[in-house]
Amino acid sequence: MNTLIELYDERAIENILAPDMFRPRRIVYLCPGEVIRDRRRQETLAAFFRCRGWEPELIFVEASLFKADRILRQLCAIGEKYPDCAIDVTGGSDAALFAAGMFAARKGVPAFTYSRKKNRFYDISGAAFADELQCDLTYSIEEFFLMAGGTLLPGRVDNHILAQYLPDFDRFFQCFLRFRREWPDIISYIQRVLPSEYGQTPPLSVQGGYTVKGERGTRNTVNEAALRDKEGLPKEKGFYPLPGLATDLDGHLELVENGIRYDVDYINGQKTGFFLDQKYNRLAMQRICKDMDVLDCFTHTGSFALNAGIAGAKHVLGVDASELAVAQAQKNAALNNLSDTVEFKCADVFDLLPALENEGKQFDVVILDPPAFTKSKNAIKNAVKGYREINLRGMKLVKDGGYLATCSCSHYMNAELFAQTIGQAARAAHCRLRQVEFRTQSPDHPILWSADESYYLKFYIFQVCHEH
């Protein structure tokens, strides 16, 4: 093993223990964007290894916090470049850990972990060199401080794979089902969701083959179609027959909102196929999009993009990761004779935004309407990182004096925290923001003062001024 892949973790010891034990020639860290931009953290790691008497080559690769499929693609690329690699699955985000497992299973890359309770390394898959290997490393107080960049924080090494995965649970569990038979040793490892050493119980625990218990006794199940496909059962879709109700519907209806016609697929589309709570926020965008070059991220069926188009935008690019949503958006553009102005692209926004930045592309208006990054208060920390990341990327793509529209539809991401996160992104992007509007959901989605969860949608329009 000349190359060790490390999943960067906020707990400092997890970034250095395996490298210091096995001393590879090269260490590749998969990191969140904030670490990539923080040279001090990278230099601290290098200084620590020099203090320990060796100087490995350190490579830092920016990785998503939420997108396991994106991380898997990055790992495969690293594996092709460095075929002599192994991967340490002791730390990292839940998405990174799961992607690492799939990477080891698909490519045969050795994978191992470390148990602090037993102070041993363990072979997970093909890593015989780490099988029940006693860790004999010792560190001075000074080395611990250097390791942590001058601070000491409590940390743990036990892995709560499922602990903060409610927002993307269906996709996660599909992957779980896909590999559980091919990879029995790893899957049993993933299923061990244990209470932490600090008395906190993870919000998810495995209950049977397919169902996972969530917060307050709720249950989250894998997508039914994926489950049926895995078990070889026939797929069924349709309406449950009830007396007096038709069941031979085609699943489509046409509606008009803000002067725009939409074909809504209420069978195959997300939720009811159309989100009505953004009606007046979409209308607000019409006032600023005339003659503008517009980027609409997480476009779904194209509603923000089409509002920009009908307002007279010069060109609009709508982006969504769902092929079904993009096809529906293209159909809606044709319904409104906007196909020449409004273009749609199927892509992962988290991949596309940095790619556009690298190309030097900028827009007059950037719209960010992501799905909820958290549906649980236990996942709010990772959600903040996600909102901060897309807003930072979005601001960099706005021309000086242009506009950013950004929103959050999670009530756990409250208005104060959302504003604070946007402010952090602006400072990191070296931008000044001028608030043009702040809005919430449409009046037919009322905010009840006796029910906090009813206030969920926060929508800002900012003018973005770059610092020179």
Describe the structure.
Helix content is 34%, strand content 23%. The chain is built from 15 helices and 19 strands. The protein is an alpha/beta fold and 468 residues long. It is globular and about 70 Å long. The two termini are 46 Å apart.
Strand content: 15-25%
State the end-to-end distance: 46 Å
The gross shape turns out to be: globular
**Which stretches of 5+ consecutive residues score pLDDT under 50?**
150-169, 180-224
What is the arithmetic mean of pLDDT?
A: 79
What is the makeup of the main sheet?
Answer: 7 strands, mixed
Walk across the major sheet and give the strand order. 3-2-1-4-5-6-7
In total, how many beta strands?
19
Helical stretch tally? 15
From the alpha carbons, calculate the radius of gyration and give it in angstroms. Answer: 24 Å
Helix content: 25-40%
Structural class, by secondary structure, is alpha/beta
Please outline the helices and strands.
Layout: E1 3-7, H1 13-22, E2 26-31, H2 33-36, H3 39-51, E3 57-62, H4 68-81, E4 85-88, H5 94-107, E5 111-115, E6 120-125, E7 133-134, H6 141-147, H7 169-179, H8 184-191, E8 205-207, E9 211-213, E10 219-221, H9 224-231, E11 252-257, E12 260-265, H10 279-286, E13 293-297, H11 303-310, E14 315-320, H12 323-335, E15 342-346, H13 349-358, E16 363-368, H14 380-396, E17 398-408, H15 415-428, E18 431-439, E19 458-466
Parallel strand pairs: 1-2, 1-4, 2-3, 4-5, 13-14, 13-16, 14-15, 16-17
Antiparallel strand pairs: 5-6, 6-7, 8-9, 9-10, 11-12, 17-19, 18-19
